[in-house]
Specification:
Bound molecules: zinc ion
Strand order of the largest sheet: 1-2-6-3-7-16
Distance between the termini: 30 Å
Structural class: alpha+beta
Shape: elongated
Number of strands: 18
CATH superfamily of the largest domain: Zn peptidases
CATH topology of the largest domain: Aminopeptidase
CATH architecture of the largest domain: 3-Layer(aba) Sandwich
Largest sheet: 6 strands, mixed
């Protein structure tokens, strides 16, 4: 199943391939629950929602679904069309599966499918039912599905994200926040040989702003500020009139993220006649360890222990749909997907044994009447 899913390439933004992959997912999940495309008008790539009804029938179906745990998956990958030709799916002699998107997060989707299928085959009921969201655009920041993911999360009893875990299999109970900020710099053009004094160099301003922006980082709190792209000017003999910085900001606490954004907005140019404009291009707030998480962790400990594993948790600076769900007020546990390594890298791989372990843990949790 993992091989088939990897073979259905699904690069973010490639509508044709995403629709084909979604069709495949729809066929896989249809025997396990009702599947619908939340983007009903077909204006974008499919955002699939699988709904498994709770054991106890309720007159109000929407109310029943609202109390269900929500499992967040994305089926897009960072790998462009044709990647599987050069790097096809394979399982090596150590039981490690390789291939584009195999870890992030096609193995996670397979684990969810196995959990639901296993429960059904064993006749084990799901006391609260389950909802599975499969988005086509997570790797590019959920431009088309952000608000729907947040609505689903706000209705959910708990939110489980099957992204890969931290090294050693640690689940993610807190995630850093992330913002992308652009600063446009306006100077004044002048010939650098004929009349340099008439010019205001946007390059000098941009370089100065770069140094000042990076000073906002704080290693003690883990806040990072990195100018990842910097540009100014178009000709070597012209004092540049325009420049631009693009800044990546990551912080563990909401207040820290806010501190950096406020400070970036307060930056001023060094030349009195230069101008700058600060734009927050995207923003995902940190996912803190909420109060509901403790209770859920206690149950998860038992489900890990039931198959001889020890649950460990940790913090990650990366962002996922878990951040969106946490911002909507949900209790979120992330990193519940199978173990592996090399996400977004050429040696992306996943441990097939771990895939089965995670399916068992997910199944145990979904069937646990005291789970949430
Ligand atoms: Zn992912």
């Amino acid at each position: 199943m993992l091989e088939q899913l990897v073979a259905h390439e699904s690069p973010s933004g490639d509508r044709e391939l995403l629709e084909r992959c979604a069709g495949h997912l729809e066929r896989l999940f249809a025997p396990l629950g009702s599947v619908r495309d939340l983007d009903g008008d077909g204006a974008r790539e499919p955002h699939l929602l699988v709904e498994v009804a709770p054991e106890v029938a309720t007159a109000d179906a929407a109310q029943a679904a609202a109390g269900s745990p929500l499992i967040l998956c994305h089926y897009d990958t960072v790998w462009p069309r044709g990647t599987t030709r050069g790097r096809p799916f394979l399982v090596d002699r150590d039981g490690i599966a390789h291939g584009p998107g195999v870890l992030d997060m096609k193995a996670g989707i397979v684990a969810v499918w196995l959990a639901l299928r296993g429960l059904r085959e064993l006749g084990i009921p799901l006391p609260r039912g389950a909802r599975v969201s499969l988005t086509p655009d997570e790797e590019i920041g959920n431009p088309g599905t952000r608000s729907r993911v947040q609505e689903l999360a706000a209705e959910a009893a708990v939110v489980l994200v099957v992204e890969p875990p931290l090294p050693g299999g640690r689940i993610k109970t807190a995630r850093g926040g992330h913002a992308t900020v652009r600063i446009d710099v306006r100077g004044r053009a002048a010939h650098s040989g004929v009349d340099p004094a008439a010019g205001i160099s946007a390059a000098v301003e941009a370089a100065t702003l770069t140094l000042r922006a990076q000073e906002l980082a704080d290693p003690v709190t883990g806040t990072t500020v990195s100018v990842g792209r910097l540009s100014a000017g178009h000709a070597v003999n012209v004092i540049p009139a325009e420049g631009r910085l693009e800044i990546d900001v990551r912080a563990r606490e909401p207040l820290e993220l806010q501190r950096v954004l406020t400070a970036l907005h307060a930056l001023t140019p060094t030349h009195p006649d230069a101008g700058i404009e600060v734009t927050v291009v995207s923003r995902r707030p940190p996912m803190g360890r909420g109060p509901g998480v403790d209770r859920l962790i206690a149950r998860l400990h038992e489900h890990f222990a039931s198959i001889g594993l020890e649950l460990q948790e940790g913090f990650t600076g990366g962002v996922s749909e878990g951040n969106l769900a946490a911002a909507a007020g949900a209790t979120v546990i992330d990193g519940l997907g199978p173990m592996g390594g090399g996400a977004h890298q050429l040696d992306e791989h996943v441990d097939v044994t771990s895939l089965l372990d995670r399916a068992a843990i997910l199944g145990g949790l979904l069937a646990d009447p005291a789970g949430f």
